[in-house]
C-alpha cells in the first residue's frame, strides 16, 4: 500500500516535468497487458444472422484486445509511440513481437473483410478511423526496423478508411458535437495529420472543405456546458484542435476570438472534471476529458505562446489531476487512459 501511494505521488511529480523512462515503462505495461486480452469485450457488432456470432479474436484478429476495437487500436499506437521515443524501453522484444503478431498481413486482411460487409460500412466511424490513421502515421514515422513491414501491412485498411471518410463527410450535413466517440471534430484531427504527412492533397481538401462548412460560422462555444456526465472529449477544445489545423494563423485567431473569446483572458480558469466512481466504465470517461482539454490547451500554447501562455498552467493542472487514475489498477480506465495520457504528453512536448 505504501508503495502504491509513493508511486502515484512520483507520477504526479515526474510527469509535471516530462515523460520519464520510468513512467514510459509503466504506461507501456497497460496496453501490453490487454493487447491480446480477449475478454471482457464490447463488440458493437450488427448481426444479420447466427453465422456472424463469433469470438472477438475471430472477428478482429488484429484489434480484439483492450475491451473494444478502437481502444485496441490506440493501445497499439501507444506502444509504437513509446518504442519510437524511448530507445531503452523495457521488454522491447516482447512488445515488438506482440505488435508483429497482431498486425500481420493476414490479420489486417480479415479486418478489411469485416469493414467491407455491407452492414458494417459505418463501423467505428469516425473515432476508430481517426485512431487507425494515427497508428499508421506513427508506424510510417518510425525509424525502427520492425515498423516498416507493419506499416505496409496496415496501409490497405488505412486507404479503405480514407475512402470512407471521403464518401461520408459530404453526406454529414451537421457536425456531431458530443463529448464521446462520434464527435466529428475529433474524428478529423488525426486524419488531417495523416493527410499532411502523406501530402495527400485531395484528402486534405475533403477534410478542410467539410470542417469549414460545419464549423467556420460557430461562435461562443458554451464552455460552461462541459462536462456532460460521461464525456471523454472536450467538444469545444476538439473543435479548436481541428480548426487550428486547417486554418492559417490569421484565419484561426480571427475565428478563435469569436468562438472562444474567454480563452484570450489571462484570468481564464477551468475546473477539472471530477470522477465519482472510477470502477464505472462510463463515469471514468471524465479522466479522458481532462486529458483531451490538456492536449488541446498545450497545442494552443505551443503554437501561439505569446497569446496563450496562461493556458499552459491550466493544461498542466488537468494533466496532473487525472494521471493517478492511469495507475489505479481499474481495467475500466487503464485499458485506454494510458493512450490519452500519452497523447497529452505528445502535445505538451
As a percent range, the share of helical residues equals 55-70%
Give the CA-CA distance, first to last residue.
32 Å
**Number of DSSP helices?**
16
Mean pLDDT: 94
Find the count of extended strands (DSSP E, 2+ residues): 0
- Give the overall shape: globular
Radius of gyration: 20 Å
Strand content: under 5%
Biggest β-sheet strands, sense, barrel? none
Order of helices and strands: HHHHHHHHHHHHHHHH
Structural class: mainly alpha
Stretches where pLDDT is under 50 for at least 5 consecutive residues are 1-16
Question: How would you characterize the overall build of this protein?
Answer:
- This protein is mainly α.
- The chain contains 16 helices and no strands.
- It has helices at residues 2-15, 21-34, 56-59, 69-85, 92-102, 105-115, 127-141, 147-168, 186-197, 201-215, 235-246, 249-259, 285-303, 305-308, 311-326, 331-348.
- Helix 9 (186-197) packs antiparallel against helix 10.
- The longest helix is centred in the middle third of the chain and has 22 residues, at 147-168.
- It is globular.
- The chain starts with a helix and ends with a helix.
- Mean pLDDT is 94; it is low at 1-16.
